[in-house]
Amino acid sequence: MVTAKFRCTIRVVAALPCRAEDVRSPCGNYRMRLTLEDPTARIHAFVYGDDGEKFFDGYPSVVVLKRKLNKLLGVALSDDGKEIKDAPRNPPWVQCCLKSYYLDKNDKMGSRHYRIFDTKLCRLRNSTIVHGYIQLNSFHHIIAFAVV
């Protein structure tokens, strides 16, 4: 059951699966977990199904999907567009919409999860931005809510 919705300013510091080829299931559904960070904490948030379709603007090729993920994760690229090995990452600060929900009503805090929804990864000039479409609270509130 969804308990809260938030609009957050975050950075994406990790993605699982990490290969663009594995972000969709064999039948084509998006299924991934992102590690989100703000100045107060890190949490995991899922991108799944129709929310993934909106997030990635449909079903782009693996090459385009990899490029979008690399920009979102702040992967350093050379002038010819290749990843620079062992270079520090610098993920951009982006906005997204998160919903908080629990899986077990008898363990609401222990079974709490987060999911990105109503958010689209967009391209603006040479940078990538993420835009959530609803006005909600800031990310630090979701962390406080999760640990209270």
From TrEMBL:
Record Pfam families: OB_POT1A
Any one GO biological process: telomere capping
Domain POT1A/B-like OB fold residues, every copy: 2-107
Alphabetized GO MF terms: G-rich strand telomeric DNA binding; telomerase inhibitor activity
Gene Ontology cellular-component terms listed: nuclear telomere cap complex
Signal sequence annotation: none
Protein name: POT1A/B-like OB fold domain-containing protein
